[in-house]
Every structure is written in structure tokens, then in C-alpha cells.
Amino acid sequence: MDEQPSARRKCATTIRTKSQVTRGSGLEPRRVGYLPWGGQATLPLVSEPLEPTAGALDRAAHLRTQPAELEKLRKGAGYLPVWRHRNLVRSSGSPVPVVLDDREAAPLREVADDEVFLGLVDGRALFAMTLPGHDEVLSESVLAEAGTFNDLRGVGPLLEGRSVDVLASARGLLYWHRHHGYCGSCGGETRSGEAGYVRICRECDRRHFPRTDPAIMALIEHEGRILLARQPRFPPQMFSILAGFVEPGESLEQAVHREVLEESGLEVEKVRYVRSQSWPFPSSLMLGFAMTAKNDAYELDGEELEEARWVSRKALDDPQGFFYPPKFSLSGQLIRMFMRGEV
Length: 343
Known about the structure:
Elements: E1 15-16, E2 33-34, E3 57-58, H1 67-73, E4 78-83, E5 86-90, E6 96-101, H2 102-111, E7 114-121, E8 124-131, E9 148-150, H3 152-155, H4 161-178, E10 190-193, E11 198-201, E12 207-208, E13 213-222, E14 225-230, E15 242-245, H5 252-264, E16 268-279, E17 284-293, E18 307-312, H6 313-317, H7 330-339
Parallel strand pairs: 4-8, 13-17
Antiparallel strand pairs: 1-9, 2-6, 3-7, 4-5, 4-6, 5-6, 5-9, 7-8, 10-11, 11-12, 13-14, 13-15, 14-18, 16-17
């Protein structure tokens, strides 16, 4: 598996907003606002200190149960619209997320299906909202010519790391809301609570919280080479490292040994944690591990994987007849760390 464990999750195409302006909205042609950072995405090594930085998202969890305080923060707040699970991004030049101000967001908030509080960025409150899925909503003047709605998997590699974190939070949390409108215990309708971080059943009062599905990624090394494999659903010639979901009652270490053995027939040792990545497609947390295979005689399961190969650093540096994931994904990062001798 790659960093997208479910074969059912397909990458969507880019949808462009309509260029016409809706008359009578009372809104002038907008000035696009952006998150206060730029540059390329980078993720820290686990061994490096994870210190707060300017522009980082402060989730401000204490405000979720203080609606009066949140209401005060709405003046001057920023809003991230999400449409069909896609984020609004300005694509000309260096891509950046589009952030609406409170005045611009007002007409969209009236029709939004869900709204959540993401946190604070440099002291400014940031909210996200799900727009109705029909095309007509794109004719709102506030959206016209503001940017394009993009699947985060496609535009993510071009965004700065903290922008990806914020958009991933918006997409993941709003996806959860859209798919948890009813109680799993009694079937009753649920409502949003705590600024979007809980859904409460109107019938039995049961509280439901956002879920995150942990999945492991396995960088398997043997005598200076790593194992790359491909699933039938991969693009032609694409190979990646192994991955799989953690099962109920299973530790991360147990999941690593089980998934590697199931998919490749290999036994591994010297398993060590490297780093993690949020992957909200729809709700995964990818946990990367490096390990050593006891031998190189792999045997594929015939279901998840259709082909595999041991690949050296030299072959990775100048791949011939294959390619591997970009550095935006955790699998791509782990492969590049191996190339640099960091794992």
C-alpha cells in the first residue's frame, strides 16, 4: 500500500470557480486574503524540537466551549470555504490558500452546511465551512475569480507546510461532519457542538468525536537497498513503500510486523519510528517506520501488491522505468531520507 491505504479513495479533478459576479449581493469585487506565510513544505525530523513558529495554527481548544468568546473573535476572523471536499486556492503564481474575511464570508455562512472553528493564526480566529455541493454556489460574487477549488492531494506539494496543515484540518473535520449526521447508536439526527469538535445525538444525547485512522508506513532496508512495491491501482510505473491500517487491539509495532509479513512475506527487525503525517483522505494519520529485513526473499500476497523490487540509492537517484511518490507524501519523505542516509 501507499500513503492512501484505501483503493476506494480517488483523486478528484480541479474545479474552477465561475467568473461571473452575482448582482444584488452588496459585495464589491473582493480583495483576496491569504494565510501569512509562503515557501515550500517541510516536515521536521522527530529528533528536532517542535517549537511554535509564527503563523502556526494554535488550535485554542479552550475556546471551543466558550461560544460568547468565539463570537467576539468573528469580527476580523478568516474563513476557509470547502466545496465537494476541495479547498479554495489561488493558483496563479505560487499557490496559496484563499481566506475570506468576515464580511465576504457572510453570504456563504448563510447557506453553509457546516462550520467549524480551526483555531488561531497569529491571533486571528480561523473558521472553515462546507458549501453546498451544487454548482450554483460558485456564482457567489465572493468566490468569483478568487481561485479554484482543488483536491489537496494535487495542490498540496506546491503549498507551504503550515498552509497544508490548516487546509488538511479544514478538509478532515468537515468531511467527518458531512458523514456523521446520524447517531451510530440509535439512528437519531446529530447536531454540531463545541465549535465543531463533537456531534451530539438529538435523541439519546450520545456524543460522537472526530475519528482518526492510524496507518503505518514501512521503509524496509536490506544491505543498502529498500523494498518498493506497487498496487494494481497505482499509476503506471509508480512504486512506493508498504503501508497498512492498524487493527483494533493492535500496537503500532505489531501492525508493522503483521502488515509487512502479510504483504511481502518478510520478517523484519530493528523497527524504529521516524515521523508522522496527517493524511485527511479521508481521516488517516500516517506513522512512518524504518526497519531491516532479515533476508531479501519477498513473496507478494497477490492481492494488495502486484510487483516489488529492491532498489539502491543509486537507482533512486536516477530512476529508470519507475518513479516514486513526491516529497509531499510521507512515503516520498521516507524514501528521500534513506537516499540521504538519514535512516
